[in-house]
Amino acid sequence: MEINNFCEQLKLNVLFDSKKKINIEGVYIGDLLSIVMTKAKQGYAWITIQTHINTVAVAELLDLSCIIVVENMEIEPETVEKAKELDIPLFRTGESAYNIACRLHDMGIK
Amino acid sequence: MNEGFLKRYSFNIAANDFMSAGKGSSSIKNILKSMGIDATVIRKIAIVSYEAEMNIVIHSLGGELHCDLYDNKIIILSEDAGPGIEDLNLALTEGYSTAPESIRELGFGAGMGLPNMMKYSDDFKITTGRDGTVIKITFLM
Prior knowledge:
The structure holds two protein chains of two kinds. By secondary structure, chain A is an alpha/beta fold. Chain A has five helices and five strands. A five-stranded mixed beta sheet of chain A has the order 1-5-4-3-2, sandwiched between helices. In chain A, α3 runs parallel beside α4. Chain B is of the alpha+beta class. Chain B has a single domain (about 5-140), classed as Histidine kinase-like ATPase, C-terminal domain (Heat Shock Protein 90), CATH 3.30.565. Chain B has five helices and five strands. In chain B, α2 packs antiparallel against α5. The interface of A and B includes residues 48 and 55 of A.
């Protein structure tokens, strides 16, 4: 589903936002890339504490809608650069994975 | 032997190059997308080629990832320059990994690489030795 004012609603810090509208088909929470690869699907928002540059490659490979880094984990500049290069929206929040997932559920993503 | 072979796409994969890691798999995905291959098949190939690519980056001295197109199948071929897998049976076991802690902290080393390649393909063949590891993964169309 298409979500207006996505970042405002979730109070996310924007590290990179694509010109594309945020369209979310589901949510996956995970930090082990091999598991995320097999479980997250096209259009999913990915909630993680991983901030390594390769998270962006995984998101691009799976056509994920965005990456939401939780617990205010520090994000390397290379990761932000890669997100810009591959056009993957990248957000950060001090909230927990659980809280963000609950908010997304309340917004209608079941 | 090469009946039905159409085309090969090849990508050099450098050891420890995390900046570029995933580019080969991403290119393969985009090529298959442009060919109109079924999305479910593309997803499987993306998972498998990514695991193969990351294995080259993390565990090998460098190598190549190939995508061979046939009229009735797609083969992902991973070839690296060594040093080979010490205990192949263990490496094929879900959850077993030789990745160091520094790599695990980055989200790798779940011990799902080779098991995922087997699980998501129609045929999986691997040979390994000091001179390198060759993995041939087939997807029937």
